[in-house]
Amino acid sequence: MHLPRHVLIRCLLLVGCVLPVPSMAEMTTLTIPDQGWGVTFDAPPLRPVREADSNDHYMYYGNANLFTVALYVDTPACDGADTHENVLTCFWSKTGKEPLINQASVQKSCNSQYCKLSYDLENSFQGKSITQKHWHFLFAYRNKWANLHVFVANPSAQDLGTLEKFEQSFHYQ
């Protein structure tokens, strides 16, 4: 027994709408203009939304559906030495007061390459609960302070795996 072609096409379309589309990751490099360095990471193909460069500041913002990457490179914003820990302390002193951050979800760690800050931002929209998983890779490099910010809304297990691969592949030079 064969299904009519229009029934088969409708079934395929329905399945395509119900099943998640796997996101293929690729190595991405963002080069910081006039600085001689850049950051590289493994992420779904990003669609650049905004990029700005002026004197000592650089900003990139791109996304792949609900997966978003933002990079901010700037002159130091607080007093202190150019250390990853100082970037974290300065950033968290300003960001930590955000009322939508679930304080129980906050995690901080540092290694020789960066300090990582992660937290969940919780809110609701049109009666639906929304959780955004935020990861910040904060580092000092060549007299600049950088914040590589990655976040995803209502992350699935696959999204969390993508975040893990992002972290494992992230480096700058």
UniProtKB/TrEMBL annotation:
Q: Where is the signal peptide?
A: 1-25
Instruction: Provide this UniProt record's keywords sorted from A to Z.
Output: Signal
| Domain of life of the native organism | Bacteria
Q: Under what name is this protein listed? A: Uncharacterized protein
Q: Which organism is it from?
A: Methylophilus rhizosphaerae
